[in-house]
Every structure is written in C-alpha cells, then in structure tokens.
UniProtKB/TrEMBL annotation:
Keyword Transmembrane attributed: yes
Compartments in which it is found: Membrane
Keywords attached to this entry: Membrane, Transmembrane, Transmembrane helix
InterPro entries: Golgi_TVP15
Bilayer topology: Multi-pass membrane protein
One GO location term (cellular component): membrane
PANTHER family in the record: GOLGI APPARATUS MEMBRANE PROTEIN TVP15
Identification of the protein by name: COPI associated protein
Transmembrane segments: 21-39, 45-62, 74-93, 99-118
Main location per the UniProt record: membrane
Amino acid sequence: MVDNQETTGGRNWRRTLRITSIILAILLIALGIFNFGTIDLGDPINVILPVYYVFFGLMMIGAEVPCNFLLQKFLFISGYFGRGIFYIFVGTLCIRYHTVFQFIVAAFLMGVGIIYIFSSCSSCYKNFAAQNDQMKQEEEAKQNSQTELKQSI
C-alpha cells in the first residue's frame, strides 16, 4: 500500500512540474511575440532573441507533451538532466531584457531547470542503489551456494 502511495505522489509531483513547464513555455512564447513589437533594428540580438523565445517555447511544449518527433531530433531534452540544462539556458536568455516580468519568467525557468537536474540525480541514485542491492544479493547467494557445496563434500 505504501508503494502505491509513493508512486502516485511521484506522478502528481511530475505532473505538477510538467504543467508548470508548459505554462512557462506559453509565457516564453508570449514574451517572444511581445518583443517582436518592440524590435530595435539597431541591435541584431533584439531581432534574434524573440525568434529564439518562440522556438524554444515550442520545443519546451513538445518536450513536455511529449512529441516523439521532437524528442528524436533533440535527444538532450528527452531526459531530465538535459531538459534541466536547457531550461536554465533559456532562463538565462530571458535576462537580456530588463523587465520585471522577464526576470520572473527567467527565475522560474531556471528554478524548474534545477528541479529537473536534481530529479535526474535522484533517479540515477535510485537506479544505482537498486543495482548495488542486486549485486549484494547475488554475492550473498553465491557465497551461500559455495558454503552449501563445501558442506556437502
């Protein structure tokens, strides 16, 4: 019964993180569209960044939904670690413009990225611990069989 509750809690937590990421992606796309209206042609980065915002926002939605085509082409966002690094990168891009709303979006993007990175480390640790336990059990079984073989001789 406890295992089911832990699994359900893990799914709810991941679902909340996924919904938060989709909302942030929509906000990022909105920032890109808004920044198209305020383009200063004197600085080329002001033209390129809004395009990146929209493209990266669409990539984030594709990663969270999940879109198999996108995940096959951009393998780094198929795992939690790569997705976390990507979110932190996109968050740093949002700091370019000096509005409070963009700083908030950037902070949340980087926060979600950090959570994804810690989630990947947590799942790696769980896999490592499970493999370690399995190796210990195999070693104990091997020692028991050797002991039984010695006793039978």
